[in-house]
Amino acid sequence: MQIVNDDQFKSTQSKYFSFRTRALNLVGRACGADSDHYLQLRRLAEGEEAANTKFFYACLGIAEAAQHDFDAGLLFDMKSLIAAELLGNFIQS
What we know:
By secondary structure, the chain is mainly alpha-helical. The protein has helices at 6-31, 36-46, 56-71, 78-92. Helix 1 packs antiparallel against helix 2, helix 1 (6-31) packs parallel to helix 3 and helix 2 runs antiparallel to helix 3. It is elongated, with a radius of gyration of 19 Å.
């Protein structure tokens, strides 16, 4: 069993916080603050054990899911779709 010293723990925790913060920012901007992806990341960031680095892989999985959905064109803003539909209907009439 390997024992982690204080400096190693602080470095790992710092990297985790950095990744989680960048993921929250990017996912919030790309997917929206009301998206499932962002809400899941936010839940991990605000939970009782938010500082626990064991959630790194959960954050990574959420970020990868967001990237997949973004790349596949599955993310959209319902308000924008409705506005575009209304504009299209207006132009056609």
